[in-house]
Write a structure and sequence with these properties.
The protein is mostly beta strands and 119 residues long. The protein has one domain: Jelly Rolls, CATH 2.60.120. The strands form two sheets. Strands 1-2-3-9-4-7 form a six-stranded antiparallel beta sheet, with no helix packed on it. The protein has a three-stranded antiparallel beta sheet with strand order 6-5-8, with no helix packed on it.
């Protein structure tokens, strides 16, 4: 690190939109950080899978959950209900969906570089 930096999701470097959601990316200190907003009714299998063209989400995630509830089901059947204030570490191979009437908002420190990017 050569100098101090400050970035804001108010001015992302890139925004990717997909059905019932969006991803905002900022680049800072050689890293890419993503803030994802998943609206009620969002599910990876129906909103992002058509872009990814994989059986399940292959992006690993290290996330802080800002608001809402996100249910995650790993390919091995393990399920996690992630709520505001939680930190989750998700390896490749999962599906996820919002629960309830509030958007699920997460800040992801890993795995968003190619997320929801049309191939």
């Amino acid at each position: 690190m050569e100098r101090a930096e400050r970035r804001s999701f108010d001015h992302p470097d890139e925004v990717r939109e997909f059905p019932l959601g969006r991803l905002e990316l900022i680049h800072i200190g050689g890293a890419t950080i993503g803030r994802a907003v998943f609206e009620p009714g969002w599910r990876w299998a129906t909103s992002v899978q058509p872009l990814a063209k994989t059986k399940s989400c292959e992006a690993p995630h290290f996330q802080y959950h800002v608001s809402g509830v996100l249910m995650v089901r790993m390919d091995d059947g393990t399920e996690l209900e992630c709520r505001a204030g939680d930190v989750s570490l998700l390896p490749s191979g999962h599906d996820a969906w919002t629960v309830g009437d509030e958007p699920a908002v997460v800040v992801d420190f890993q795995g968003m570089i190619d997320y929801a990017k049309a191939l």
